[in-house]
Amino acid sequence: MPQTSAFGAPAADQPLASLAIERRQSGARDVAIDILYCGVCHSDLHTARGEWGQKEWPIVPGHEIVGRISAVGDAVEGFAVGDLAGVGCMVDSCRECAACGEGVEQYCENGPPTFTYGGVEKETGRMTQGGYSSAIVVDQDFVLHISDDVDLAATAPLLCAGITTYSPLRHWNVGPDSKVGVVGLGGLGHMAVKLAKAMGATVTLFTTSPGKADDGRALGADEIVISTDPAALAATRGTLDLIIDSVAASHDLDPYLGALRRDGALVLLGVPAQPHPSPGVFSLIAARHSLTGSSIGGIAETQEMLDFCAEHGVTSDVEMIAMDQIDAAYERMLAGDVKFRFVIDMESMPAAA
Fold it and tell me: How far apart are CA 218 and CA 242, in angstroms?
């Protein structure tokens, strides 16, 4: 099997290091991609450090992948050598259940779907390895088209952060008459602000950091609410149709439920290490509020998101790093020291030993 240079975690308690990994030999339905850029997600950090139960090592993270196609199988349709292509959080699913049939493979009922790293590759039985690597081989049904007219590095995070925020905005039919709240202004939150604004919504940003007010306005937020200010929070009561909560730390949900209009929904995207305090029952029943969550999107919706972003000029705000800066980038992510997504330039990938 072809060997590929990669960067991964040899074990949970070790820094990431240069590795040589095996990619499967391309089959008739496969697309081989030379990776140009890969975004850095909090999920990468959690997995590399064994915080989500990772038990097999080494592991190569990365599921915000943009590259150029180097080979296609004989049965591949719609992709050609030289095309730009993307790979997100999934590289396969059962393809038989109702969810897969409806194009929401992320909710595969025989799942989970085969994730880009840490899953089990059907073709080989080996663990899938992600985009901190020079190349990847993926079934055509899980490859995305990338426009020639976009900033490729700034497009890479759309494959996770973009679709994770786009999917609930679309599901709850956000449009020009919508009033949307966004809690948190990190990698997910800044995309939620940009996408909701591009859909025509009036956007309110909730942040604990007054220093992020200017950033929020620059990204498109119409209103900034400092969520540590009880009076400011109280002033939002009953004003919003939908709130996207991107914060991955335990916090009180009641003020945000209270900010919803009748039949409004609070959608949780962040995954805290400790559970949120349970909201008061009256926060839900007083105005038929919904507390819900959302994952990534299916392949069709992800392609729709990429096309929407290309049309509206929506990309992630990124800081480029070299591959050997990844551990420092993880520490900076934990400290909130990035605006708003790290992206690895794969030209910096060292040759595997």
Answer: 21
